[in-house]
Amino acid sequence: MTAAGPSPRRSRPRLPAVLARVRARGLVRVLAGAVIAGVLLAPVLAGCAGSQGSAGGDAGAKDYENAEALKPLAAGFARNVLQDQKAIWTSPFHMTRTDAKWWLTFGAIVGVAVATDHRSAQQLPNTADQRRFSRDISQVGAAYTLIPILGGFYVSGVLAKSAKLRGTGLLGGEAVADALIVSEVLKYAAGRQRPLVGDGGGHFFHGGDSFPSGHAIESFALASVIAHRWRHNKAAVIAVYGLATLVSASRFSGQKHFASDILVGGVMGWFIGTHVSETH
């Protein structure tokens, strides 16, 4: 019998080849993220600001903040939300060259954020106490918390006979409703998994509901309305945007969302709140 020779050693891939492969995968994730962001965000970001001027002239977009009877309030609220949704989802057809530049720039930023989400999510200790504390804080931006706040604005306006307070409650409610509709549609379309689901990669089109952050979009939509209507009160502006930022950041530290989910939600919320404030 002849002795068996030494088994051939498996050659290790050279370092340049490994780096090239990593870079290629990173580039693919950036491009994929940018494409996904473009497809999903175009209706909201491309012309939301540009549609404000044209929507402002519609007969149905009249200011209804002085109405106190339930029927005209409900009718005006529903009419304005429908007009907002029409303006948001048809905005790509009214896109200007300037709008397109901003949309492409933001889409690229979101693409990079999506590509680095998994790594950025591992930068915090991510302990059980951290997640529990963060989720408690984030409940300030939940819909069931924002609705009583909006009701407080309106009731205070009625009692104080202040059209500004009543209008803040009504337009804030309109912005939150718009934000909720937009976020639910995009969540369903994106199907992104949350950070603690599966392998933590935040994969799109897997039946998830992570993208975008509902807390971020609703908080910033309301903050934008309040900031626009109380723009001369710098303390109020700083407070509402600071609170919206705190709520959004807590969704990241609570491992409920990736950084890109929060970025997209915050920017969309600001646009929606601005659109509602300047249109109606």
Characterize the largest beta sheet: strand count, sense, and whether it forms a barrel.
none
Order of helices and strands: HHHHHHHHHHH
Distance linking N and C termini: 93 Å
Mean pLDDT: 82
Structural class, please? mainly alpha
Number of strands: 0
Q: What amount of the residues lies in strands?
A: under 5%
Outline the low-pLDDT stretches.
Answer: 7-13, 15-23, 41-62
Number of helices: 11
Rounded to an integer in angstroms, the radius of gyration calculated over CA atoms is 23 Å
Please bin the fraction of helical residues. Answer: 55-70%
Shape descriptor reads globular
In short:
By secondary structure, this protein is mainly alpha-helical. It contains 11 helices and no strands.
Provide structural commentary:
Helix 1 packs across helix 4, helix 3 crosses helix 8 and helix 8 crosses helix 11. The longest helix is centred in the N-terminal third of the chain and has 31 residues. It is built from 11 helices and no strands. About 14% of the residues have low confidence. By secondary structure, the protein is an all-alpha fold. It starts with 14 loop residues before the first helix and ends with a helix.
